[in-house]
Amino acid sequence: MRPYVLAVAGKGGTGKTTLAALMIQALRAKGPVLAVDADPNANLGEALGIPVERTIGQLRDEILEHLADLPPGVPKDQLLELGLHECLVEDEGVDLLTMGHGEGPRCYCMVNHVLRRTIETLRGNYRYVVLDNEAGMEHLSRRTTQDVDALLVVAEPNPVSLRSAARIVGLAEELKLRVHRKFLVLNRVESEGLRGLEGAIREVGIPLIGAVPYDPGVAELAVAGRPLRELPPGSPARRAVEGILERLGLGKEG
Ligand SMILES: Nc1ncnc2c1ncn2[C@@H]1O[C@H](COP(=O)(O)OP(=O)(O)OP(=O)(O)O)[C@@H](O)[C@H]1O
Ligand SMILES: [Mg+2]
């Protein structure tokens, strides 16, 4: 089975993790979801209320540390595969994989190569993969955001944020990422809406798929350190995210 891969990108603090978590919440009822926190400053687990004990970054460090002590003949890829499964936290309808980061300036090439292959294989077990990316464009430029069905670029409804979104779109094109479709999502939209921003939105160069309103419920949960699954059904942000999924063909009926 090839899953539908959704990735979220955007400038710092635009709402990537919030959007990813709300999409995961909606999709987990429809089929198994692999949630990947690709931000070294990981917090998707917190947003989902899934505790993270081990990250891929930690696993890579441990493996590199012990590589020299391993008896010859122990296949490194099997070891990584085993470790990878320890990094996968299972919850109802969703498994979470947290990439984290390595400690030192080491060469992770070998480990990264095996990891990428293993994650590719793992993906086959899910109906959906949702990737929460880091703020910068590092992931895009390291080409880990590949083979994506829909890339959602999140921006806030102001010209500066929209220009950042345009830069991300430009970079994704320059790198020739294997992204099937790209969409713009506006987040924290206040009641005055998008008036006066039509030109700036057009200049981003990708279709606007939805506007998520400022939702006091989301802000309150963040302040209280509570997961987004406690956001009541029918709340404005939840409804907007459901609308986006519907337009992607991933709605309740899809
Ligand atoms: N629609 C919304 N309504 C109210 N608050 C929101 C909304 N979207 C996001 N927030 C709040 O804004 C803050 C930043 O959101 P979030 O962490 O999702 O952004 P991010 O893009 O993932 O940030 P980072 O770049 O640091 O990873 C959080 O406190 C979140 O609760
Ligand atoms: Mg985030």
What does this entry look like structurally?
The chain is α/β, with parallel strands linked by helices. The chain has a single domain, classed as P-loop containing nucleotide triphosphate hydrolases (Rossmann fold, 3-Layer(aba) Sandwich). Helices cover 41% and strands 20% of the residues. It has ten helices and eight strands. It has helices at 16-27, 44-48, 56-66, 76-87, 109-123, 138-141, 159-174, 198-204, 216-224, 236-247; strands at residues 4-10, 33-37, 88-91, 94-98, 128-132, 148-155, 179-189, 208-213. It has an eight-stranded mixed β-sheet. Helix 8 (198-204) links the parallel strand 7 and strand 8 (208-213). The longest helix is centred in the middle third of the chain and has 16 residues, at 159-174. The mean pLDDT is 88. Magnesium ion is lined by residues 16-17, 39, 43, 132.
State the helicity in percent bands: 40-55%
Give, in spatial order, the strands making up the sheet with the most strands. Answer: 3-4-2-5-1-6-7-8
Mean pLDDT, to the nearest integer, reads 88
Question: Which molecules are bound in this entry?
Answer: adenosine-5'-triphosphate, magnesium ion
Identify the notable features of this structure and list them briefly:
254 residues; Rossmann fold; 8-stranded mixed sheet; binds adenosine-5'-triphosphate; binds magnesium ion
